[in-house]
Amino acid sequence: MSLHNIRLEVMQTLEKNIETFVDTFLITPEKIWQPTDFLPNSQSDSFIEEVKEIQELSKELDDDFWVSLVGDTITEEALPTYEAWLMDVEGISQHSDNGGDNGWGKWIRAWTSEENRHGDVLNKYLYLSGRVNMREVEITTQHLITDGFDIGTARDPYKNFVYTSFQELATYVSHNNVAKMARKKGHKLLAKMSKIIAGDEMRHHLAYTEFVKQIFKHDPSEMMLAFHHMMKHKIVMPALNLRQSGGKIGDTFDQFSIVAQRAGVYTGFDYVDILRKLNAAWEIDKITGLTDEAQKARDYLLKLPDRMYRITERMVIPDTKFDFKWMNPA
Questions:
Q1: Per-residue pLDDT tens for 98-107?
Q2: Which of 85, 83, 86, 90 is nearest to 222 (CA)?
Q3: Active-site position among 13, 33, 273, 312
Q4: Whole-structure pTM over 0.85, yes or no?
């Protein structure tokens, strides 16, 4: 049986329990929070005063913080790209042979619907803050969706689920750090909002981590090789192609990445910590029945966090002041 057929068979096996995954890791629209729960009510007499309060508090947070938040928001807003990418993964489809719904397609749409709220609430909050040039933010968002991305997984479900397991935890870390910083500056509403978004990302991380855990049971060697491939080539960020108006594809990402590290929103140490957590969550040191090649891949993965930590320790984050078109003066 070819690798393609084995992967398809494993995906079909997992699909039989997709309803359980949806019920366990996702929440219905009526029960979950919605963006308006965190925003001033435009029909309230106190609306203008609440907006003024947000704008006054927003002046207390520096440009690095806002650039990081803008980048996070744009990343969330590029959701159509991620849904389209995942719908094209082997074994995932909006169609099935009997004309009904493919279970994986249902999972992706339900996951997308939860993720959609993140960009929605953050976008509105940026607009109310008065700290950013929303037209420039909107141009960058449109470019990012137009330019698409290549995360190095092709249509392989194993590699894709490694990516989503990693990336959902990375977004948890990023939003959670934003929440801590906002709280320190007395920005309680933004802190609460970011914290609850982080909670969503953690649930999604746990779901994709569970998918990989199940695949390890069915196809351990190939799953290990897929994990090895993704980490050897490094996890690229969804905003890799970030650019501003008049710019070239990807020319803003490095600057944004430096600012996010400098602000402490997402750092190289966070990357290493996520890898450690994935190694532990999948208990790769205990997996049996591996081929020689997969054994070597496992050895590489177990040693990689310490090696990357030493490299990260030597990194120097520039204190360069970048001019982002997204920013308004405080």
A1: 666 688 999 9
A2: 90
A3: 33
A4: yes
